[in-house]
Description:
Layout: E1 2-8, E2 20-27, H1 30-43, E3 47-50, E4 56-58, E5 63-70, E6 75-78, E7 81-85, H2 90-99, E8 102-103, H3 118-121, E9 124-125, E10 128-129, E11 134-141, E12 146-151, H4 163-166, E13 171-179, E14 181-182, H5 193-199, H6 209-222, E15 245-247, H7 248-262, E16 271-272, E17 277-279, H8 282-288, E18 300-302, E19 310-312, H9 318-336, E20 345-347
Parallel strand pairs: 2-5, 3-5, 4-20
Antiparallel strand pairs: 1-2, 6-7, 7-13, 8-14, 9-10, 11-12, 11-13, 15-17, 16-17, 18-19
Amino acid sequence: MLELHDAPLAPLTTFRLGGPAARLITATTDAEVIAAVREADDSGTPLLLIGGGSNLVIGDKGFAGTALRIATRGFALDGTKLELAAGEVWTDAVARTVEAGLAGIECLAGIPGSAGATPIQNVGAYGQEVSSTITEVIAYDRRTRETVTVANAECAFSYRHSRFKADPERFVVLRVRFDLENASGLSAPIKYAETARALGVEPGDRVPLEKARETVLELRSGKGMVLDPEDHDTWSAGSFFTNPILTHEEFAVFHARVEERLGDGVLPPAYPAGDGHTKTSAAWLIDKSGFTKGYGTGPARISTKHTLALTNRGEATTEDLLALAREVVAGVHAAFGITLVNEPVTVGVSL
């Protein structure tokens, strides 16, 4: 276990923002992770868990406690059963499953971060979510001080949410287990319309696994959503806001605001979200509120490739980023009456 004091945290995040931690521990085994968590809990020390750092916004003052970087490794494949250590690089794991001819997470290629974060956020993109393939999550329960196995049905998965996200102080993810599909080298059925168009197929069709992965990577790259140290559009947390989910009544009010602002006949994006709810597009709301690609004049701006990504152009502070985020939230609410919710976890700061 590596221990540092007054350690910079910005290099451990994709935003490259945030002040130092009073103490930074890097754990490379499950036992080291558990020992560090127990030590912090026993001493009453604030604890910050860091995986790939792709979903973190850390305040400029840093973190006055112990930051625990989970750097465990482990990729175990048995037939269609996959077990990943929490510290495994997610996009590398996806590539290895495609090489093994297994379908189910190929459209989640290029997503930065670690495997352990995927069940917390119920990571999803291009028609796939990890909740459809996760069977179990192995976690350390800080309340009972035991290692527990949480079955899929007990994870309370929903859109970008889970039991782990709902109770962030309780569980520390150690390992994630998946059940993938052997479809003779073909992908899972393509669900996302944009992906189907790019592949030249119909939704529901299957394509060669590697073709699906490559196409998703191309789509993500075109939006600045694949990490590239030379491209400031990727100095972000990907999608900064979640897509709003509205009741049918709320959507009707929203639709009326759209017609009032943009004219009759303008239809906002609408996707069924189950149980009397409709999901709309945060990116569409941001764009139609006047925050177009590249918006901003300071060191934090909207990506030049995608309106849903807020970016550090190289010299930004966390406060610069939050000022931009607050401006976008206020502008969208003024235009359409919808309050956007940030997707990244904030540490020491809030919108």
